[in-house]
Write a structure and sequence with these properties.
Blueprint (H helix, E strand, L loop, with lengths): L1 H27 L5 H10 L2 H7 L4 H5 L15 H11 L5 H13 L13 H36 L4 H15 L2 H12 L23 H39 L2 H8 L4 H13 L1 H5 L1 H10 L3 H6 L5 H11 L2 H29 L11
């Protein structure tokens, strides 16, 4: 197992390098870089100019005349050069790329272009919202999905299985953001009821509340976002649990256990459960990371939750490259580590699994 872990860790290096290299090259052709962002604000043209302009000339290989920036006419060329130096575009692209990787190896992510704060501090500041969404949506989906999936497997083909499958499929088919809008209209001061807050993770007077009221206030704000996100999450896990149990129930060892006179409950939870839940439990880290990093962007926008999803989106729009690349690096690294953790969890749950005997 030690050799397998070492191989996986070594393979992370070229994987992350490839992800960062491709992303960095794509960014070179993205229209409206940081220099043009500043020029747009100075000229009063805003996003209209940026949407039609090309990328910063400094991005394509360092340095450039002010005339190469759309909207820069009339600005002092020396000022444009100063902007390029401020954002690092006075250097060749390969110097910037390898310099960025060298800093990232030391976990030095620099400072945001447009916010007076280091990138790492900015990410840490936004993490509570994303952790709240990712953790609770994963726990809730597992608490609902595992018992429901087991019940559906036991009652396979019954009326219970049919109508619950209908609910699961419908829930999976409804986009989370659309359901979120519906919840807002119904329960957040829309056309019907005003029962839940429309924005934020806590109330403005949260620091003045007693700790029981703080907990209530926290979940009061999370109620609608979590409800909107739980649909697709619990649907996937429910069907996975059901199919895993059905596969195990049909195996010979279950028939043997029943022939020995064991009760259905003893067979189900004493023999089937561990084998059937292998893939579900081992997938928990990946499910959490998925909900943590990728599942909350639209929900964060709709409910004005200032988390990592919203941070990444705004950074791309603002061309805040240090934040964009730092979040990409961190997400990629964490994703690869979670993949390794999932494999180790497989072997912990079922020691019969041996990753040493297979190619990575």
């Amino acid at each position: 197992m030690g050799a397998y872990i070492l191989r996986r860790l070594l393979l992370m290096v070229p994987t992350i390098f490839g992800i960062m290299a491709v992303s960095f090259l794509v960014i070179q052709f993205a229209p409206g870089g940081p220099v043009e962002q500043v020029i747009a604000k100075l000229s009063g043209q805003g996003s209209d100019m940026l949407s039609g302009g090309g990328g910063d000339s400094g991005q394509a290989g360092g340095g450039g005349e002010s005339s190469q920036y759309r909207g820069a006419q009339g600005l002092d060329p020396a000022f444009i050069k100063q902007l390029e130096a401020q954002f690092g575009f006075d250097k060749p692209w390969y110097t910037r790329f390898f310099g960025m990787l060298g800093s990232y190896l030391r976990f030095d992510f620099g400072e945001s272009f447009f916010r007076d704060i280091s990138v790492l501090d900015l990410i840490i500041e936004k993490m509570p919202v994303s952790i709240s969404l990712g953790l609770w949506i994963t726990l809730i989906s597992y608490v609902i999905s595992i018992p429901l999936g087991i019940r559906k497997a036991v009652k396979d083909g019954s009326s219970f299985d049919v109508w619950t499958s209908g609910i699961v499929i419908i829930g999976y088919a409804i986009p989370g953001f659309l359901f979120a809008i519906l919840l807002m209209v119904l329960f957040a001061g829309g056309s019907f009821f005003d029962w839940f807050p429309l924005r934020g993770l806590t109330s403005e007077n949260w620091s003045q509340l007693s700790w029981p009221m703080k907990i209530i206030d926290y979940f009061w704000h999370l109620a609608l976002p979590l409800t909107a996100m739980v649909l697709s999450a619990f649907a996937t896990t429910t069907l996975l649990t059901k199919n895993s149990f059905l596969e195990e129930i049909r195996k010979q060892y279950v028939v043997t256990a029943r022939a020995k006179g064991l009760s259905e409950r003893q067979v189900l939870y004493g023999h089937v459960f561990r084998n059937a839940m292998l893939i579900v439990i081992a997938g928990f880290p990946g499910a959490f990371i998925s909900a943590f990093f990728t599942g909350s962007l639209l929900i964060e926008n709709i409910f004005s939750l200032d988390g990592l999803g919203l941070l990444g989106y705004r950074s791309v729009i603002d061309r805040d490259y240090p934040v964009v690349f730092a979040t990409l690096f961190i997400f990629s690294l964490v994703g690869l580590l979670v993949g390794l953790l999932s494999d180790l969890l497989y072997t912990w749950i079922d020691p019969r699994i041996d990753f040493e005997s297979r190619d990575v």
